[in-house]
Hints:
176 residues; alpha+beta; two-stranded antiparallel ribbon; 13% strand
Amino acid sequence: AVARRLLPAAFILPIGLGYLRLLGERRGWFSGEFGLTLFVLALIVLFNGLVWWNAQIQRRSDQRRKLVEDALRLSEERHRAVMEQAAEGIYLVDLQTKQIIEANDALERLLGYEPGEAKRCKVYDFVHDTPDHVDARLLVLAEAPIPLYGERLYRRKDGSPVHVESSASVISFAGR
């Protein structure tokens, strides 16, 4: 971005100021030495002004980027705090791949998984039902305008069943 702003000036300013210098010398407004001095001083002042202007643009851009990064960091911290501190088991599943995107500690404890292990699972590993029935329920969920509530039978890592009250809803993020 800096190069795009400065490069045209690097070509246009010397040519324009050189033309004005030659015009002033030919018309007798000043001598060749004085014209050269004006030419050099004008270039120094103009390029310093352009560099300062670009530095201000860059500084404002950096400040905006830092504000956005801080807001993103706070949002991630808030999300992580909700997920990690919730007493209820929470997980996110990709409806297309059926892959678990995220699961909190409460869900992993409930189902007997080690921390972070649930992310390597598919929803079929959690729900105590056939893949076809799970897919059918996910399809109903995807088309439901409101969250779905009910009792469900889940499966622990060791295969034992566990009854849970569930609330499921579709959330959209990252264009999906």
